[in-house]
Design a protein that fits this description.
Order of helices and strands: EEEEEEEHHEHHHHHEHHEEEEEHE
Radius of gyration: 25 Å
Number of helices: 10
Largest sheet: 8 strands, mixed
Structural class: alpha+beta
Helix content: 25-40%
Distance between the termini: 47 Å
Oligomer: single chain
C-alpha cells in the first residue's frame, strides 16, 4: 500500500519534497539520516521504503530496484530530503563517517572512509551499491590511486547503471593503469632520452611546441600550448613521428623510443578526454631554466562553491629543488589567492620568488595575485583538497 504520494514542489540536484499526508507522525526527525530502500522503479517514479512507510516519488538521481540510499531530513512538512547535504561531516570527527558506513552496512576501513569523503565532497548520492562497487574495485585493482583517479571513478560509476559497471571498470583499467602524475613523469623521461638521440629536426620542433616552456626566452614565454591541454599537439606530434618512421631512415633504437612516447601520448589523450568531461584538469609542463629541463605537475578544478567561474589550483613544483613543497590556490577572472606550503629550508628563496611572481602576474595578465608562503616542517606533506586554507575562501 502506498501511504504517501509525492507532490514534487521542488527537486534540485539533490533535494526532494514529498507531501507526507497522514504519515507525518512516523517521519524521521529533522537533521537525522534516513535510509531509502528502492522497492520499484516505473517510468520516472520510484516506490521507496522509509521508516517502514512506502512513498511514491521522483528522485534526482538514477536509482535501481534494490538500491539503498542515505538522505538527510531537512524538514518534516513538507517532507524534505537531501541526498547531497552531508558536507558538514567532512570537517567532523571520523566517527560521523563511520556511522554512515554502518547504516549502509559497508566495511569500516580507512579506504572506505576516504572514498566516502570524496563521494560527499563531490555531491554524489550515498548509494550503497555504487559505494560497495567502488570500494571493492579500488581494493582489488592493484593500482595506487591518486585523488583525481578516485574522483573520476566516482563520476563514471555514478553516471552509469550497475549493469554497466563492468564495462566502466574494464575500460578504466586499460586507460588509467597509471596515475596522470606517473604518466607525465614517463613522458618527461622519454623526452630526456629523445634529446640524447639524433632525430630529424621536425620532431624536435614539434616537441618544443607541445611541451617546452622556455623561461629565459621571452619570445617563447607565452607559448600557452606548453602549459595547457596538449592533446591536439600530441596528435600532430604522433603523426610527424609516424611519417618519419615510414621513411625508413631511423635506427632501431630511435624507433623504439619514438614508439614509447607515442603510446604514452595516446594514453595522455584518452585520460584527458575523460577527465575534462568532469571538470578535472590535471596537467604538466616542462620548464626550460638555465639549460635544465624541469617537470611541474599541476591540477585545476572548477569550484562548485562559487557563483562565478572560480578554479582551484594545485601545483607540485620540482621536488629536486623544492622538496616537500606544494601550492594550493584559487583563481577567477580578477584575483588569485594562494598558499605555498614548504619547509623552513626553502622558505626564504620561495618567499622572494612569490613577491616577484605576484608583481609579474599583475603586470602580464592584469590579475591581482596574493600568493603567500607558510612553513610545514613535517617530512611528508599531504594536502587534503577537501579542507583548504582560510585565505582561499576569499573567492568562494
Amino acid at each position: 500500500m502506498i501511504s504517501a504520494v509525492s507532490n514534487i514542489t521542488s527537486m534540485t540536484a539533490g533535494t526532494i519534497n514529498i507531501n507526507a499526508g497522514t504519515a507525518i507522525s512516523n517521519l524521521p526527525a529533522v537533521n537525522s539520516t534516513a535510509l531509502l530502500n528502492i522497492l520499484e522503479k516505473f517510468n520516472n517514479n520510484y516506490k521507496v521504503l522509509i521508516n517502514g512507510k512506502v512513498f511514491q516519488t521522483q528522485l534526482p538521481v538514477n536509482a535501481e530496484k534494490g538500491d539503498e540510499i542515505l538522505a538527510k531530513v531537512l524538514q518534516q512538512y513538507p517532507f524534505t530530503l537531501a541526498l547531497d547535504k552531508f558536507d558538514n561531516l567532512l570537517n567532523a570527527e571520523s566517527g560521523a563517517l563511520i556511522l554512515l558506513l554502518d547504516k549502509l552496512q559497508l566495511s569500516k576501513s580507512v579506504l572506505s572512509e576516504k572514498i566516502l569523503r570524496y563521494v560527499i565532497a563531490n555531491k554524489k548520492s550515498l548509494t550503497k551499491s555504487k559505494l560497495e562497487k567502488l570500494i571493492n574495485y579500488v581494493e582489488k585493482a592493484g593500482i595506487d590511486f591518486d585523488e583525481s583517479q578516485i574522483v573520476l571513478l566516482i563520476n563514471l560509476i555514478w553516471d552509469n547503471s550497475n549493469e554497466g559497471f563492468k564495462d566502466v571498470a574494464n575500460s578504466y583499467h586499460k586507460i588509467f593503469d597509471m596515475s596522470f602524475e606517473k604518466l607525465s613523469s614517463e613522458i618527461f623521461e622519454s623526452l630526456l632520452r629523445l634529446n640524447r638521440l639524433n632525430l630529424p629536426q621536425e620532431i624536435y620542433l614539434k616537441i618544443n611546441e607541445a611541451m617546452i616552456f622556455d623561461y629565459e626566452n621571452e619570445a617563447h614565454q607565452f607559448n600557452l600550448v606548453s602549459v595547457g591541454d596538449k592533446s591536439d599537439e600530441f596528435l600532430s606530434l604522433a603523426r610527424t613521428i609516424e611519417s618519419e618512421i615510414e621513411k625508413n631512415i631511423l635506427i632501431e633504437s630511435s624507433i623504439q623510443e619514438l614508439e614509447v612516447i607515442q603510446s604514452l601520448m595516446i594514453k595522455y589523450i584518452l585520460q584527458k578526454s575523460i577527465y575534462n568531461k568532469y571538470n578535472i584538469y590535471p596537467e604538466f609542463v616542462v620548464v626550460k631554466f638555465r639549460s635544465r629541463l624541469e617537470l611541474i605537475n599541476y591540477k585545476f578544478e572548477k569550484s562548485t562553491a562559487s557563483k562565478d567561474d572560480t578554479y582551484r589550483i594545485f601545483i607540485n613544483p620540482d621536488q629536486g629543488r623544492f622538496e616537500n613543497t606544494a601550492i594550493q590556490a584559487m583563481m577567477n577572472s580578477s584575483k588569485l589567492f594562494g598558499v605555498v606550503n614548504t619547509t623552513m629550508a626553502n622558505f626564504s628563496r620561495i618567499e622572494d620568488y612569490m613577491c616577484k611572481l605576484n608583481t609579474r602576474i599583475f603586470e602580464e595578465i592584469n590579475i591581482d595575485s596574493y600568493l603567500t608562503v607558510t612553513v610545514d616542517e613535517t617530512k611528508e606533506m599531504m594536502f587534503d583538497s577537501l579542507s583548504r586554507s582560510k585565505s582561499l575562501n576569499k573567492l568562494a
